[in-house]
Design brief:
The protein is built from 7 helices and no strands. The protein has about 140 residues and is an all-alpha fold.
Length: about 140
């Protein structure tokens, strides 16, 4: 009887205790994700180090479909029948709020799987959004028609 109680207590404790993030350091507390409607801007101040980590995360988890430069033209995307936006075009993300991007990354969208908190804490997702928006900054704006 005591063993059953201890086992049940351990299971309840494990389920109720969230797993700490593997992606962030102790000084990088994860802010709670704000709903898309109230989070028009990124919740972090990017640093060279945080952007280097965001780039690494992108290379591992995103580039296979979205492309190394964010243009969305990859063999995998084509094979899956995906039509991905070209993030090198400033117009592609111009209408997207940071909160919308956060939700899409964290929860997944269509065939895109969610980014689990164990792989990337909330700060890392916000830094990833800053990194994604940087794809179009290196591209000249297309002339108005």
């Amino acid at each position: 009887m005591l063993k059953s109680f201890l086992l049940l207590s351990a299971v309840v404790l494990v389920i109720s205790n969230p797993t700490p993030s593997l992606a962030g350091s102790p000084q990088e507390a994860s802010p709670a994700p704000a709903p898309a409607a109230t989070a028009p801007k990124s919740m972090v101040k990017p640093t060279a180090e945080s952007q280097a980590k965001a780039k690494k995360l992108y290379e591992v988890d995103c580039a296979m479909c979205h492309g190394d430069n964010g243009n969305g033209k990859t063999d995998l995307a084509k094979d899956m029948g995906l039509s991905l936006g070209d993030w090198t075009d400033p117009k592609t993300l111009a209408s997207k709020q940071d909160g919308e991007l956060f939700d899409a990354i964290r929860k997944g969208k269509d065939k895109m799987p969610p980014e689990a908190e164990g792989r990337a804490d909330n700060n890392m997702v916000w830094n990833l959004i800053v990194y994604l928006r940087g794809f179009s900054k290196s591209q000249p704006l297309a002339p108005a028609k």
